[in-house]
Amino acid sequence: AQSVTQLDSHVSVSEGTPVLLRCNYSSSYSPSLFWYVQHPNKGLQLLLKYTSAATLVKGINGFEAEFKKSETSFHLTKPSAHMSDAAEYFCVVSPNTGTASKLTFGTGTRLQVTL
Amino acid sequence: DVKVTQSSRYLVKRTGEKVFLECVQDMDHENMFWYRQDPGLGLRLIYFSYDVKMKEKGDIPEGYSVSREKKERFSLILESASTNQTSMYLCASSLSYGLRAEAFFGQGTRLTVV
């Protein structure tokens, strides 16, 4: 069994300040972990993924995430927010086993960026 | 680039109608998925398919069925649409598990049942 908890449903930051979106996971297997972003009226786009290589993962648009097994966390960070980062972000877990990669999504965190 | 195409961006249907949502992917992926997205609930898996003619129920299959006659096409069917099926529907495809489990999503179909 696997699950994902996104600890904040809504985060608001000022442009130019750091972003932290929190995610905790539970998985019976060594998982793959992903962050996806969804801009208004758009489909989901992959930001980054962890697949058991380096624990610090760099993604697109300056985002990165650190896999911490001891804390079962995969928090998403960015040093300096931009207005274009305003979107909804989903943390996703997938087991590294099985015939189909059944993804489990968090409930999402809406990021608001203010001037 | 992987492309997942959903046949409609917006649909309005009447209660009781049979509704077909179509999804096509062009990367020869084994797995295809249908999710619905509702505010505060994230994405919930309706059905997925890991091969032609193979399907498995997801977390919320009630009121839905699926069809996968060809590898590239995965259809979601609402046998008798109801107002509680008003939602955003997202199709996705992926290769197999683990390292290749990255899913590619279509643009979504916003369905309104009146």
Question: What does the model show?
Answer:
Helices cover 0% and strands 56% of the residues of chain A. Chain A contains no helices and twelve strands. In chain A, the strands form three sheets. In chain A, strands 2, 5, 6, 10, 11 and 12 form a six-stranded mixed β-sheet that branches. The termini of chain A are far apart. The mean pLDDT of chain A is 90. With 114 residues, chain B is mostly beta strands. Chain B is built from no helices and eleven strands. In chain B, the strands form two sheets. In chain B, strands 2, 4, 5, 6, 9, 10 and 11 form a seven-stranded mixed β-sheet that branches. A four-stranded antiparallel β-sheet of chain B has the order 1-3-8-7, with no helix packed on it. In chain B, strand 5 (42-51) and strand 6 (54-57) form a beta hairpin. The radius of gyration of chain B is 13 Å and the shape is globular. The relative contact order of chain B is 0.33.
The gist of it:
The complex is a heterodimer of chains A (115) and B (114). With 115 residues, chain A is mostly beta strands. Chain A has strands at residues 2-6, 10-14, 19-21, 23-27, 31-38, 44-50, 56-58, 64-68, 73-78, 87-95, 104-105, 109-114.
SSE topology sketch:
The complex is a heterodimer of chains A (115) and B (114).
Chain A (H helix, E strand, L loop, with lengths): L1 E5 L3 E5 L4 E3 L1 E5 L3 E8 L5 E7 L5 E3 L5 E5 L4 E6 L8 E9 L8 E2 L3 E6 L1
Parallel strand pairs in A: 2-12
Antiparallel strand pairs in A: 1-4, 3-9, 5-6, 5-10, 7-8, 8-9, 10-11, 10-12
Chain B lengths: L3 E3 L3 E4 L5 E7 L5 E8 L3 E10 L2 E4 L6 E7 L2 E6 L8 E8 L9 E2 L3 E5 L1
Parallel strand pairs in B: 2-11
Antiparallel strand pairs in B: 1-3, 3-8, 4-5, 4-9, 5-6, 7-8, 9-10, 9-11
